[in-house]
Design goal:
Length: 336
């Protein structure tokens, strides 16, 4: 497959096929590859009306020796299980989840970007309620699908600092709502605030805690991390944010280079404690944030054009492990 690998953005490109399994009468069917990217759904399918739709996001990376690995798919399987519990859905087992992901990558091996291009294959496992429902109730049938598409950086310049806007007018999740689950509805709720941010010139928005609006929750696409001069790696503790697998991995790496990891509420008024701020996630990897606009206030972190030393080190270590350049001492890579 010949694509302009070095200039891929984060958008859908067609591939050879996706994987599908269906749940009915208490059992999952075997994963099969489908080449038609359209799926057939009943018009009354629960996912369309009542939003029983959850998803995951993970990447496959090609190493210099040509081998291809998934990054921590077991963690995504576990998070899909948690999201499914919240939305009363039947989740695939970890084995089925990982098997379907591997199959989707194997089927599309030539869409896994070559080593050295900085690109990767993005996997989107999706679980939807398919039963025709008109009274509000949970579906008893589900489809589990894994689609893939080759991607470059989510924010167009990759590891280059961007400015963020604190979104004070809208929340993406409620205090006891679905913020910890990766539901399609959370992203629907973030579209309008995201658009408002873009119109004001901000590629990324920062949501506040939905209860008081005083603390940092997370970015629309990623978790918040901040580095202090005292050698701390701080990230918000909140009941309404997604538990990021990238953040979890970076916490391990930060501890290994001597940082103290602090998971606690972070007041918006205290952002001046940080010398570096980043947005972290599978798609965003680490996107350095050089300024946060909060009402009339502007908090600045480091230079406009280069990321700070700590986030640069963490970024290089994480990507080094993912592309097989640094030994995977934690067993995070799963060969396909
Ligand atoms: N927060 C939100 C709202 C996200 O969409 C994502 C992306 O999945 C993350 C955080 C980061 O999670 P992860 O690192 O598991 O991709
Ligand atoms: C991911 O990083 O996998 C996500 O799901 C974020 C999405 C906004 C692209």
């Amino acid at each position: 497959m010949e694509l302009d690998w070095k200039n891929l953005g984060f958008q859908y490109l067609p591939t050879r096929g996706h994987v599908q399994c269906d749940f009915a009468n208490g059992v999952w069917s075997k994963p099969v590859v489908k080449s038609d990217p359209h799926i057939s759904l009943h018009i009354a399918a629960n996912a369309l009306h009542y939003g029983q739709a959850i998803f995951e996001g993970l990447k496959a990376f090609r190493a210099q020796d040509g081998t291809v690995s998934l990054f921590r798919p077991d963690r995504n399987a576990d998070r899909m299980r948690l999201s499914a519990e919240r939305l009363v859905m039947e989740a695939p087992s970890e084995d089925l989840f990982v098997e379907a992901c591997k199959l989707a990558v194997r089927e599309n091996l030539d869409f896994v970007p070559p080593y050295g291009t900085g690109a990767s294959l993005y996997l989107r496992p999706l679980l939807i309620g398919t039963e025709p429902t008109i009274g509000i109730k949970a579906s008893e049938t589900f489809s589990f699908l894994v689609m893939v598409t080759p991607v470059g950086p989510y924010y167009k310049d990759g590891f280059s600092p961007v400015e963020a806007l604190v979104m004070e007018d809208y929340d993406r999740a409620a205090p006891k709502g679905t913020g910890r689950a990766k539901t399609a509805g959370n992203y629907a709720a973030s579209l309008l605030p995201g658009l408002i941010g873009k119109k004001k010139g901000f590629p990324i928005i920062l949501f506040t805690d939905p209860k008081e609006g005083k603390y940092v929750d997370e970015f629309g696409t990623s978790n918040f991390i901040g580095i202090t001069p005292a050698g701390e790696y701080k990230t918000p503790e909140s009941g309404s944010i997604l538990q990021s697998i990238t953040n979890e991995s970076l916490q391990t790496l930060a501890e290994e280079i001597g940082f103290k990891v602090v998971r606690a509420p972070i007041a918006l008024d205290s952002l001046d404690q940080f010398t570096e701020v980043g947005a972290c996630g599978t798609a965003a990897v680490i996107t350095p944030i050089h300024a946060v606009h909060y009402g009339e206030k502007v908090f600045r972190f480091g230079g406009k054009s280069v990321a700070g030393v700590t986030l640069t080190k963490l970024y290089k270590t994480l990507q080094g492990i993912q592309y097989g350049e640094i030994p995977d001492t934690h067993g995070w890579l799963v060969k396909v």
